[in-house]
Amino acid sequence: MVINLTDEIDEIMETYQYQMDHVRISKEEIKKRLIRAKEVEAKENAEVAEIEKSIQP
Questions:
Q1: How far from chain centre, in Å, is Cα 33?
Q2: Residue 30 to residues 18, 20, 25, 40: CA-CA distances in angstroms?
Q3: Could you give the CA distance from residue 56 to residue 50 in angstroms, rounded to a whole number?
Q4: How far apart are CA 5 and CA 22, in angstroms?
Q5: Residue 5, CB half-sphere, CA atoms under 13 Å: how many?
Q6: What is the pLDDT along the chain (57 residues), one digit of tens a residue?
Q7: How far apart, in whole angstroms, are the C-alpha atoms of residue 56 and residue 46?
Q8: What are the residues whose beta carbons fall under 8 Å from the beta carbon of 11, sequence distance 6 or more?
Q9: Would you state the pLDDT for residue 23?
Q10: d(Cα 29, Cα 15) in Å, to the nearest integer?
Q11: What's the pTM value of the predicted model, to 2 decimals?
């Protein structure tokens, strides 16, 4: 019985490459979300500081 390992290996490599591409995309998405969260946090902190400043005599 002859087993064609080339096809099996190709399929495994394609699956691995797909997973690696997916992970890379996910990391980029996480980076974008972290940057956005920091921007929102900075904006909110600025707004709070502005309100605190206006309240103080």
A1: 6
A2: 18, 15, 9, 15
A3: 10
A4: 26
A5: 0
A6: 566 788 888 888 888 888 888 777 788 888 999 999 999 999 999 999 999 999 987
A7: 16
A8: none
A9: 78
A10: 21
A11: 0.52
